Predict the structure.
Amino acid sequence: MTPIEDASDAEDVGAGDAFHAGPEVNVGGFERGASLTVGMALLALALSQRRARGAFALSLLGAYLSWRGATGHCALYEALDTGSAEDEEEGRLAAGAHDDVSIEAAATIARPPEEVYGFFRRLENAPRFMAFIEAVQVIDATRSRWVARTPTGQILDWKAEIIEDRPGELIAWRSDPGALVHHAGAVRFRPAPGGRGTEVRLDVEYDPPGSALGRTVARLFGSATEYRVEEDLRRLKQLLEAGETATTRGQPRCPASVPPA
């Protein structure tokens, strides 16, 4: 190798070292924006309540999130050898590979299986007993559009497809591949012993939007577990047996509009 080539290689190495001198970007663009927004909000809250207990902790958390959003680097991601930056380029994985939250519940409803199935199959009824569902728009015989409100007030919408439908026995569905929210489930109906009505079993799995870190934090602080399927079934039971629920859900109100496609 000639001295010129040696010098050229040295310059390339130096340039590469300079380029990577800062922290590695391992946080995706959407997540960076969210971190920066939340971080600034926490800093503002800490400043407005600087004499309150916990204000210092809020300011530290706000400063870290702001730095995380500005630099695009997450130390935890680095330690776990993961990140959301590459995820944005590769797209969402197949449904079976999602880091899903799976929930199941069962209830006995004093109505025949055909009636319970028929009520559930009319998807427009979902907001009447499903806690976070705001509206459902039927597109065709198997496809529909869903709008939900999270515990934090965020509005999400996605399209879903019924993948198996056995009248009086089973309804299974899943969200479209690539949807922001991965949502899938199945509800089974069978006659209860002794002619007591219908045993209903509801299995739901969903993957909240956001990074793996966001989902972990959601679990730690309980937001992921706030979706209680047993409460949905309790409201369904009340609706079918008594014609109303014990809450205001399902009563006349201004329905949420489905965002334009």
